[in-house]
Amino acid sequence: MARSLSTPAVLANVALTQALLAGVVLAGVWYVAVPASVLGLAKIPPSVSTVLIGVAFGTVLWLASETATTLSTALGVEPDERLRGLLAPATAGGWLAVLVVVLPLVAISEELLFRAGAIGASAAGLGLSPWVLAVPASIAFGCCHAIQGRTGVVVTGGLGFVLASGYVITDNLVVVIVAHYVLDGIELLVHEWLDSTASVD
Length: 201
Fold this sequence. Notes:
With 201 residues, the protein is mainly α. 80% of the residues lie in helices and 0% in strands.
């Protein structure tokens, strides 16, 4: 169905669904009165160092993702990149919307659900170690990216576990939100914007 939609329609759909997801998670957090510290939001607004750590973390994740994709391609397993192509706008305004609205919403909603909710809040509520919950949360994260094919599920699940590890170690949701945004942003810019610019040249 996504392939029959235009890029603006896909972007609007992603923005709407991710905003709805974030709203549902936040409503649940508010309803059961989960403390901000349990979610990894004890230090709001975040410090500059927190944001810089997230940027560095996201850059490392992107390099790891590129390496995993290169290895899988060398082994004859091609990743499905159609979704990324659908998210690539054709105008400067479209790129602004992606980088300022869509990707931040994706990073915030998915980190709220798969890290803060599935790990932080669940660990506190169930009295479990967050490391125990990091594995199923990461598997679920990978499976939710099934549109990217089996290779995409495996790579995304692995990246999800690294994000989960970063969340548990730092106890800071902002770090992984920034890292997630940086990872998605670099990937889209490098493979869609730079590639399209190079092909025009």
